[in-house]
Fold these 2 entries.
Entry 1:
Amino acid sequence: MFEQSSYSEQYTFFQKLRSFDFVLIFCVICLGIISNFSMYSTDGGEFLYHSKSHFIRFVTFFSMMIFLSFFNLRFWHSTAYLFYSITLGFLIWASMYGVTASGSQRWINLYFINLQPSELMKIAIIVCFARYFHREQMPNINSFKNIIISMAILLLPILLVVSQPDLGTSILIAISGVIVLWLAGFNIKYFIYSGLTLIISLPFVISMLKPYQKQRVLTFFNPDRDPLGAGYQIIQSKIAVGSGGLTGKGYLKGTQSYLEFLPEKHTDFIFTLFSEEHGFIGSVILLILYGVLIFRILNIGSHSRSFFGKLFCYGFGSAIFVYVAVNMSMVLGLLPIVGSPLPIMSYGGSSMLATMIGLSIVMSTKIHSKQIIH
Amino acid sequence: MELPVFDGGDSNVRKFNTVNRRVFILKIAKGIIFTGIVARLFSLQITENKKYLTLSDKNRLREWRLPPVRGEFEDYFGNVVAGNTKVYQLHVVPEQVEDFKYLMVRLKNILSLSDKQFSKIVKKKKQQKPWETLIISESLTWDQFSKVNFYLHELSGAKPVLSVARSYPYKANYTHVLGYVAQASESDLLENEEIKNKHVPGLRVGKTGLEKTFENSLIGTNSVKRYEVNAFGKRINQVDFKEGEKGQKIKLTIDTEIQKLCNELLAEKSGSISVMDIFTGEIIAMHSSPSFDPNLFMYGISYKDWDLIRKNPLKPLINKTISGLYSPGSTIKPIVALSALENDVISTKFKVNCTGKMEMYGQTYHCWKKKGHGIVDLRDAIKQSCDTYFYEMSRRLGVDRLNITAKRFGLGNTVFKNLYTEEKKGLVPSTKWKKNALGKGWVLGETLITGIGQGYIQTTPLQLCLMTAQLANGGFKIFPRITVDKNQESLEKIKYKMEARLKITNENSSSLIRSAEEIFTKGEKEYNKLFRNQENIKFVLEAMSASTNEVRGTSYRSRIDDPKYRFAGKTGTAQVKKITKLQRELDLDTAQIPYEERDHAWYVAFGPYKDPRYALCVLVEHGGSGSATAAPLAKKLMKKIIDRHEEREKIRKNNLVDI
C-alpha cells in the first residue's frame, strides 16, 4: 500500500503527460472549436464581443485545465472542503453584495472577472461529497448523522441559489448532488421517500414561485397559451430546430438566429442556433461528442482505485450529462425553460471555468488512477 | 479467495461494488435519455421539417403590397381624361423613429403645416399600429419635397416617396361622367370583394360614376415586395419584387372638345347637355352643370370646399343628365304627334282652331300664345308648338296609347343598363299606373297636360336625347353606350340592318298593339323598328325641321342656313309651377320671376338635317323659354359637333380596322 502510493508519487512530467486521456481532450477541443464557431455566428458572422471573449475564455481555461491536470489528486482531496467553503462563501457574498443583472443577484465582482459562484458550486458540491464519502464505511453511509450532514451540504447552497433567484442552477445543483449521494450508496428508499415528499409539496412550492417562473412552468405545458410572451422562446426555438432539417440551413445562414427571432441565442439557446445551421446530422454529431466525453469521464472513474476519484468522476460525468440533457430537452420543448447553459458551448465564463476545473480533476484522476488516498 | 485490492476490507469492496452497479444503471438511463433527445430531434427536423420550414419563412418573410396602378380613361381620340399623376408623398413609420415628437415638430416647420393638420396627423398616428406607414402628406409640392430632402439627414425616419394618384386633367368637364375616387371606406371593402383583396392603406377607389362601375377592371393588381424582416419587423433586405399589372384602360365614346364646349355653354347655369350618335348610340358628350373639380377629392377634400359643393343650391353633386327628373314640356310633342299618327287617331291634315285657350270639362287650358295660332294643322302645330292642337289630339289619343309609344322610344326607363347606380327611370303615366300608385282614377284633363309634357310625366335629359335620336335615325331602337365597344358594327352595317328591318312588314300591326309591359320584359332588340309606318316618322322630322328653319318656327332664330350645319329641333318650356291667373295677366319676363319658379328651358335637336347623324338635348334649369335660352346653345353645339364629325369618322374607321 505504501509502496503503491510512493510509486505513484514518482510520476515524472512526461509520464503524466503520456497518461493524459487524449480522447477526452479531443472531445473538449472539438466542442471548443464548435462553440467558437457558433459564437461567431451569434455575432452575425463577425468577430465581435461575444465571440472574442468566448474565444479568450476557452483558450485560457483550457490551458488552465491542462495545467491543473498535473496536480496530484491528493491536492483536490485535501482542498475539497476548502473549495466548497470558499464557493459557499462566494454565494453568501453574492447574496449580500452581488451584482444584480436581469432581476437576479448572481454575480460577484472579483475586479478581474465577474464570477457566478453558483456555477462553481456545481463542481464544488461533487468534490465535497466525494471527499465526504471517501472514508465512510459502507454500513455507516446510511447513518442518521451522515444523512443530516450531507443534506446540510446540499441544501445550504441550493437555498442560497434559489434566493438569488436562479431556479435553473439550483435544480441542476440539486440533481447532481442527489446523483452523487445515490452513487455514494445512500439507500434507495430515501430517494423514494423524498421524491414522494417533493411531489406532495409541489403545489406549495409552485405557489411560492415568482410569477415569471410560474408563467414558464405553465407555458411549458401549453406554449400557445401566450405565443408572444412566455411561449415565444419555446415556439421560436422549435421553429429554428425544425426548420434546420437534415443538413441545416448552412453555417451563418440560420435565419431564425440571424434575424433575432431566437432569444438568448449565445447562452441557453446556443444549441438551437447550432441545430438550425447544421441540421439533424450536426446535432447528432454534437450529441455524440458529448456522449463520448461523458463516457470517457465515467470510464476514468471506473478505473480509479481511489473512491474519491471514482465518485467524483461518476458524479461529474453524470452532472455533465444532466446539464446537456436538460439544456437540449429545454430548447427542444421537452422541458420548461429554466436557465441552464450547455457546458463548453454556451457563453459564460463561470460555467466554462467550472467545467474546466471539473475536467482537470477528472484528468488528474486518470493520471493518478493507481493512487490510493488515505 | 481473492485478496482485497483496496484498503478497508470487505465493506470497502461493497462500497465500490455499489457505486459501480449504480453507475451502470445510470449509464443505461443516460443512453435512454440521449436516444430520446435524438428521437425528438428526428421528429422536429426530419418528420416535421416542412411545417417548421414554413413557419420559419413566415417569420422571416413579409410581403408589402403596394397600391395597384389604376387603369386610365381615354376619350374617343385617345386623350387621357382620368390618369395617374406622380405625387411626392412623405411617409413615416413611427416604429422606426427614435424621437417622434421631435420629428413631427421639425416636419411641421419644414412643411409649414397648420396646427389643424398637425393634430390630425398625430391623431392618425394613435389610431394605427406603430409599424404601419403613417402618411404625413399625400402630396408635397416640389418645394416642400426638395426641402424635406435637403434636411433629410436630420429627419431620421421620414421617407420621401414617389407615388401615383388619380388625376383628372380636364377637371370639372368629366366629373359626372367619370365620378371620382377617394380612399376606400369600410363599406367599399364590404361591398366589393375585389377591393378587399387588393386593399392597402390609402387605396383609392371609385366612389361614383364610371370610376365605381368599372372598379374591378380599373383597379389593377398590387405590386408585391417581399422583404426579409427581423424579429422586430424591421426590413433587412428585399427578396423579391412582383410587379403588379396596371388596371385596364377604358376608352370612352366622348369627344373632349364637345364635352368642354358643353361645360362652357352651361357656365354659370344649372342644367345638362347630352349628345348622341343616332346610329351607334355612342354618347358624344354628357355634361351636367354646375360641376366641380374631382381632383379636390384626391387628397381628402377640405371641409370648406366640401361645404361649398354640398350646400350649393344648384346641386353640383347631382348628375342631372341621368338623375335629374323634369317635365319634358313641348319636347315630347313629336312623340305625341307620332303616337296619334301611328294609331290613326288623326291624319296629318287634321286641323284645330287655336284661340289661345280651350275650355274642357269645366276647366280652361291655355296655349302658350295668348292670342292663339288660328287654324293650324299638325305640321304647324309642331312647328309653332301649339298647345291647343295637342290638347285636342291627346284627348283623342288617350294617355295609354301615348304611354306605349313614349316608352318604346325610351322614356320612363333608364338609358344605360346598370352603368350608373344613380340613374333614374322617370315616369310616363298611364291610367293603370295612377290606379296602382295613387289609387285614383285617371282624369281626362290629365291626358291633356300630359300631351304637352306637363303633369305626371317626368324624364331625364338623356332620355329625351335618346328619344330624339331614335326619331332621327328613322325610328330604330338603339342602345346608348359611353365606352367604346370592340364589337361595334360599322355604320354601313347598321344602316343595312335597319333597311332589312324595314322590309319585315308582318310585324307592323302587332308591334304597336303590344303592351308597354311586354316590351320591357322581353326587351326591344337593337335596331328593331319602333314604328308602324315610317312615313309618320318622316312627317314628324320634317315638322321639327320646320320648327327650326321656317319663319314662325319656335327656334327659327337659332337656325343655321348652311345646309352642312342645318339641323332640326323642338323647343320645350316646362312649367315648374302652376301658373296663376294673376301671373298670366301680368305676363312677367323671366328675369322678374323668382329663380325657383322660372320655367325649365329645353331643346332637343338632330342634325345635319339632310343626313342626320347626331342628336342632342339641352336643358337649362329655370332658364325661361326653350327658344330663348336652350336653342341658341344648341346652335353653337350643333356647329361644333358637325365640325368635329370628320375627325370622329377617321377614328371610327381606325377602330374598325383595329378589329
Entry 2:
Amino acid sequence: MDTYLLQIFNGISVSSVLLLAALGLAITFGLMKIINMAHGEMIMIGAYTTYMVQNLFISFLGDRYFDLYFIAAIPLSFLITGFVGYLLEISIVKRLYGRTLDSLLATWGISLILQQLARNIFGAPNVDVKSPAWLNGGVVVLSNIQLPYKRLFIILLAALCIAGVYLFLFKSDSGRRIRAVMQNRSMAESLGINTRKVDSMTFAIGSGLAGIAGCALTLLGSIGPTLGTNYIVDTFMVVVLGGVGRIIGTVAGAAAIGIGNTTFEYFTNASLGKVLVFLAVILFLQWKPQGFFSISSRVLDE
Amino acid sequence: MSSWQKRVGKSTLLKSIMGIVKTPKGSVYLNNENITKLPTYKRAQKGIGYVPQGRDIFPQLTVHENLILGMERNAHKKKPIEKEIFELFPVLKTMLDRKGGDLSGGQQQQLAIARALISEPEVLLLDEPTEGIQPSIIQDIGRVIKKLKNRGNVTMLIVEQYLEFVMDVADYFYVMDKGHIVLEGKTEGIDPREIQEKIAI
C-alpha cells in the first residue's frame, strides 16, 4: 500500500514534467498546427542551459553561491530556449504553416541537426547536473514514505508555469492577440494585428516552456543529446489526449499519461506498462477523438 | 456605396482593398497614399475598418475581448470602450462576458460593426451586412449606418445584394458584373427597377 502511494506520487511528479513539456507543445501543435518534432530538442536545450549555468557558477562564483544557480537557470533556460525557438520560427517554421505533414518531416530534420550539434559541443556521453543542496532530502509523511524535495519542487514549478501561461493567455494584451490570431488569422490582421510577430512570439514562448521542462529534468537524472527523444512521444500523447486549445485538457492529459505510466509499470514492467498506456490512449481516442476537453460553440459546430 | 449581384467580385474587391487577397492589377489609394503593397495590418492601422461577410467574430473570445481587439489598430492610445458604441448597439452591453460564438447571427453582425467602429476608422468596409439576418436587426443596422453618415467622419463602402436596403442608406452606388462596374450614379432619383433590369441582363 505504502509503495503504491509512493508510485502515485511519482506518477504525479512525472506528470508535472510532462505537463511542462506539453504546455509548450499545446501552444505550437494545438494552436499553430505545427507538428514540432524538434520540441524534444527544446527540452534538451533547456537542460544543457542549466548545465552551462551550473558550470559558470562553479567557475566564477565559487562554492558560496553555487546553490543559487538553479534559481538563475530557470529563467535563463526559458529565455535561451525561447530565443532558439524564435530563430527556428523566423527561419524555417514560418514556411510550414498550413502544411502539417511537411512540418513533421522538416522539424524532425531540425531535431536531428540539434542533437548532433549538442553532441559536437558537449560530447556524446551524458553529463550530470548537481542539484542544489536545498533540494536534497525530502518530507517524511508516513513512517516509511518520503517525498523528495526535488519532485515536490518540480510539481510546484509546473503549477507556477500553468498559472503563468493562464494569466498570460487570458489576462494580457499579448495573450488576447495570440488567441485572436489562432482563431481567425485574416480577421485579426484586418484589425491591425501584426500576425507574423504574434506567430514568432507564440512559437518562442512554446519553446521556452519546453526549456523550463528541460531545466526541471536535470534534477531527475543525467542529461544527454537525446534527452528530448525520450519525452517527445509522451508529450504528443498528452496534447492529443487532453484535447486541443484548452489548458485544462493539457493538465488532465499529463495527469492521465503520467500516473498511467507509473501505475501500469508498477503492476507489470516498464515496456509492457508503456504498451498498456498506448492501448488505453488509442481506445479512448476511438471513443472520444477530440480528447478529454474540446471546444464547442455555435461557430465551430457548423 | 454599392449594390451588386452574386459572384461578380464584390467581396474580392473589399478583400483586395483590405489586402487579404493580392491585387494583380490596379492600385489602392488611401488619402493620396498608395497602399497597394502594404500588408493588411498596416492598412488597418492607417484607418480602414473591415466588417467581413460572415462577420468573423472570434468565437472563443468574449464580446468584450472582441471589442477590445478592435482597438489594436491604434494600440498605443488605449482607452475604455466609449459609451457611444453601446448607444449604437445597446444589445452588446448586456452580453459583454458571453463568448462571441454564442451570439446569434444578428448580434454577431452588430458586434462586428462595433468592433470595426471602435477604432474610429476613416474608411469602413461592410460586406453584406444584411446577409442571413432577421428584418428587425437589418432595420437597426440601417439606422446605425445612417447615423454614422450624418456624423460625416467615416466613409463607408457597403457591398450588398439587398437592393432596397442599400438604396435606402447609400448616397452613391455602383453596379458590378464580372469584375466590372456596369452602372453607377446617385441613389437619389433613380428608379430601383432600372438597376433591376441592368442586373437581369
